[in-house]
């Protein structure tokens, strides 16, 4: 399986155009969290899996999901994991895909967004956090394991940021507008508002987890 | 000076009601970043200081700001600091206030938000990061230095999250819906979706920086 799509519970105002205007053009199966599943049905897409505590939708809407979606997993609101975590783990288990496109991961409650941002530190996501792409209207976030990378400029985005989410060693940005040489820290830093000089940027680091955010205003 | 208000460049859709509907009821002087200053003028409020590269507003709008605001600081877009950082440092220098209410710190570009979230690690903010309150439509964020605290339930908010922004030792949540006992980690974790059982929550930690986020859906 190449690509799986996941719709979390973040607000519609954060959806990128591909989701709000041309969702049927997006390849691959869907997994929906909570009222994300309802949005998919409204768009004529039947997700393979629906997961959540569904406390943000009413009984009739829950029945609609249950009647249409083969794999409907309802959890109690008191569960230990967020809907996001449950969704991503279920998608990983079912598909073992090469790419996980995640929509609705941003906006709304910041504590939920930060769970999504920091989940690469959770050992359960170790084998696939570098295959996640969080997509919002103005941002794409991906995560990198230690190594050296060539980053491609995403169509329509103006800025690129490198964010060491926790401790990092030997972080280098070789050929962007703003270079960084052999940076080490024990805490997170958002190296914001960098830009491409060429079609690609070379960067790398020796230990830690780095998020790459391409964005526009 | 008790309270200063700062309006950063985040989108209006993230403004809390007090800002979008009754801004004149907010006590204290204002500092505006970039087009935040323009919004303040439109609302009939003259900020004491306007800071930014102002590349998101046109010449005529810049002239309006310059003619009306005594302290108009224009920086080149290539500067090392974000508008947020410059604004907060200028407010600190001018007022040395007890509380800095910061609006427009969330939404839009995530790399900018993360600069705001991680700035307590920057030594220039060490003496006042625990006096910052980031306010959005559905979230209030504040930062704590090591110690033991009694947190008060903010009117209208449902959830509370404790987020160790980097390494933390002996993090304890004593009397919330979900307790936490003597947690230690070298990386950030968002302890999301906690709730008040009483009017206050006792919590504490020995080293690190913890953000407290009160939120609603």
UniProtKB/TrEMBL annotation, chains A, B:
InterPro entries: Thi_PPkinase (IPR006282), Thiamin_PyroPKinase_B1-bd (IPR007373), TPK (IPR053149), TPK_catalytic (IPR007371), TPK_catalytic_sf (IPR036759). CDD domains: TPK. SMART domains: TPK_B1_binding. SUPFAM superfamilies: Thiamin pyrophosphokinase, catalytic domain. Keywords: ATP-binding, Kinase, Nucleotide-binding, Transferase. Residues 147-211 form the Thiamin pyrophosphokinase thiamin-binding domain. It holds the Pfam family TPK_catalytic. Its EC number is 2.7.6.2. One of its GO terms (molecular function) is thiamine binding. One of its GO terms (biological process) is thiamine diphosphate biosynthetic process. PANTHER family: THIAMINE PYROPHOSPHOKINASE (PTHR41299:SF1). This is Thiamine diphosphokinase. The lineage of its organism: Bacteria, Bacillati, Bacillota, Bacilli, Lactobacillales.
């Amino acid at each position: 399986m190449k690509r799986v799509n996941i719709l979390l519970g973040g607000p519609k105002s954060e959806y990128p155009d591909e989701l709000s205007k041309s969702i049927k053009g997006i390849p691959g199966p869907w997994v929906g969290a909570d009222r994300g599943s309802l949005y998919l049905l409204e768009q004529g897409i039947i997700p393979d899996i629906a997961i959540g505590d569904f406390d943000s939708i009413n009984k009739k809407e829950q029945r609609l999901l249950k009647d249409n979606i083969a794999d409907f997993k309802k959890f109690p609101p008191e569960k230990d994991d967020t809907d996001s975590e449950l969704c991503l783990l279920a998608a990983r288990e079912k598909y073992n895909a090469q790419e996980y496109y995640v929509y609705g991961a941003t906006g709304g409650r910041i504590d939920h967004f930060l769970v999504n941002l920091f989940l690469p530190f959770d050992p359960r996501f170790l084998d696939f956090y570098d295959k996640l792409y969080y997509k919002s209207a103005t941002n794409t976030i991906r995560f990198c394991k230690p190594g050296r990378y060539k980053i491609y400029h995403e169509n329509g985005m103006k800025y690129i940021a490198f964010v060491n989410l926790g401790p990092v060693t030997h972080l280098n940005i070789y050929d962007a507008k703003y270079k960084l040489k052999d940076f080490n820290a024990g805490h997170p830093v958002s190296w914001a508002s960098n830009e491409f000089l060429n079609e690609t940027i070379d960067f790398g680091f020796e230990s830690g987890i780095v998020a790459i955010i391409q964005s526009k205003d």
